[in-house]
Structure formats: structure tokens, C-alpha cells
Give the backbone structure.
Amino acid sequence: MEIKKYNANPILTKADVPFRVNSIFNPGAVKVGNQYMLLCRIEMPNGRSSLIIARSKDGINFKVDDKPALTPEDHKEFYDYVVWGVEDPRIQKIGDKFYVTYTGYSKNDPLVMLAETEDFNSYKIIGPVSEPSNKDAALFPEKINGYYWKMDRPTLEGHQAIWINKSPDLIHWGGYKFLYESEKGCWEADKVGGSTPPVKTKEGWLFLYHGVRGFGISNLYKIGAMLLDLNEPWKVLGKTKEPILQPDLDYERIGDVQNVVFTNGWIIEDDGSAKIYYSGADTNICLAETTVDYLLSLCK
Ligand code: BMA
């Protein structure tokens, strides 16, 4: 199998949300038992985002909850860091708990927020786990060499790169290391960032990332895959030479931000198939299907 966009995309649009929103997009994804869950970003009519759950039995037909799961107002003591919205969640299961890393947006610039949940009904908001400007953070699913690990994407002086860091308790972070920045003059030349949370494979930690190139008045957002060493996760073992997903179709080209495919959630099934939930043009939610083995073969 190569990579197949589902033929009835998009699988969710704002018409599926039971109240008025501007858009639904960029979901984190998780399978709990037999239930597929997307933690979707909804941009409210005022232009600020909250997160809401959509549920499915088959990974394709989703029903959106009646009310949001996490809003800026839920953040109480951390409200100052999320006043302008909570965005782009990545879900990782570590032990018995689910951890959500997401962007908190405010006049303080974007930064990485962390929350934990056991059931997606109630959330404990741990708070910011980076300084600004930083986004696109994802946790690794298990400790490596005795530490929790996180990748994120700080904004450096005039450029952006993916970095990796570690923590004994998910709260105090350090050991910062550079992970990856694009070469110039290619599809990902202007910006990269982590996309889906890493999964463990026999060959290394596999994750999807996004690459951006500006052309004329538009940025083109495309998706690639990368493989990291299992014991030394700051070492890139391989990556796709070309994007695996790019905006081609009308629902990916036309919307609030044109020419964007963006993902922050995928589900790896027991048989090694992968459901990639991605958004077209920051406006909807779509599905693409592939396998871990195929992605690994592209990273060599
Ligand atoms: C990134 C994030 C995403 C968005 C993408 C394309 O910087 O803000 O939320 O999908 O840009 O606009």
C-alpha cells in the first residue's frame, strides 16, 4: 500500500459541529478500546480556538460532541498563556494516562501547554512546558534512558528547527538538543515542525513532520516522515526525500489558509496500518491511509 487519501474526504467540516464555529481542523488522534477519538481544534467565530472531541467506531464516520473539551477559559491560573486560543493538540499515551501537548496562544506568543487525562472527560492542566515562541510539541510514548522525552519547535533568530529535550517528571525540562532543520532550496526549505507523535517501530521512532516553502503570496505546507534512533532519539536515521502528502485537491487548496495539508494526529492499528488525520487549508478534517512499513521504506 502506498498512501491513499480517502475518496470521500473531508470526513468532518464545520457543518458537523452542533454549534456555530468558523472551522474544525488539526485534530490529535487516539484509539481507546474500539473507539476512535479525535481531539479537534475548533476556531470559534471570534477567531479563537478551543478543542472538542469527535468519536467513531470505524475511524471514518465521526460524531462531534455537543460541547468543547478544553477552552481557554478552562485554564484558570494559566489563562494568560491561552487567551487567544488553544490549538493543534498531540495526544500520547504514557502508562495508563493520556497526555496532550498543544499550543497556547496569547500576546505572549505561542508556547507549549501540557494537560493529562485518564478518560477524556476531565483534564488536569499541567501548564506551560516551554517558553515562547515554541509549538508543534509531541511526547515520546515511553521513557528512554530513564527520562521522558519531548520534541518541539522553537523559533530561533529568523529560522525554525525541531529540537528535542528530556524530563524526569514531565514538568521540568532540559538536556536540549538540536534535532533537524531543512536544507535550503527544496519543498521544506522555509520551515519545518514535528507533526504526529512518534511511534516505536523495529527500526526506530517514526513520526510525521511538516515542511513549508513560500511561493509568491502562498506558503505550501506538505508532510514528510522521519526516523530517529531508539536509544539516542536526537539522531536522525533517515527521512523521506519527498513529501508523502501535499495539497492537490480543492479541499486542500481552498479555505482559510490556502495550499495547506497539516497533521498532528495518527492512529497506528495492530496490523501496522496507519490512519493519518490531516486538515486541508486549515478548514476541515481529512483521512489518508498507509502502513508503517511503507513509511519506513521511504525513510531509508
Ligand atoms: C502552522 C500552525 C497550524 C496551521 C499551519 C498552516 O503554523 O499554526 O495550526 O495549520 O500553520 O496554516
